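From the shared-data thread, chain only:
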Amino acid sequence: MHKAIIIDDERLARNELKKLLQDFPEVEVIGEATNANEGIDKIETLNPDIVFLDIQMPGKTGFDMLSELELAPHVIFVTAYDEYALKAFEVNALDYLMKPVEPKRLADALMKVKQKDEEEEFSGGNVNRSLLCEHDQVFVKDGERCWFVKLSEVRLFESVGNYAKVFFATNKPLILKSLNSLEERLDDKVFFRANRKHIVNLRMIDKIEPYFNGGLLLELIGGEKVEVSRRQAVKFKEMMSL
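Structure, as tokens:
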């Protein structure tokens, strides 16, 4: 059974979607919200499996809302935007439904949820929700570009003031999160605090070299070089049994 929330400022659109979802007994609508702030509250208190999310809402957009969440749930966008406009966002969301929603498209989108769940079960989902595991995805917004990024694809987090720069593929967008808050949530078996400014994904290390004063220099798969401070080098060597 999937628990779903509908976030849309138009009451008619919410009612229409609820009516369509009655034909899908595996989905239970457990809440509704009319704007982004209400949406964040509902997601954090009700912990849904699926969020049907309108992109254009007064105040914050659906994208703005997602970028404030710690962890991105399965998101199906429900929008009046046309497909070309959506492509420009580069958001690799689970699916998009154009308004007015067609039952066939809704069925396809829910099928994708099912497939994604099966993949995650197979790869060992995360039971402790206070920790983010590498199969979890975070939503990253940089100007007009947005991505859902699996943590396993992130090579490096770099501190930039109150922000953290996220390195994945060829992208390096900023998220409004401090390195300390990220460190608390990330699995320390995969993500290692190399120094004051960097958290590295241990699986993305290409080379390890000795460095000044007993420190280490890591070269990541993307070519970035990160220094491991002397104090952290001791910990690093223990973890990697070097």
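The domain at 153-240 is CATH 2.40.50.1020 (OB fold (Dihydrolipoamide Acetyltransferase, E2P)).
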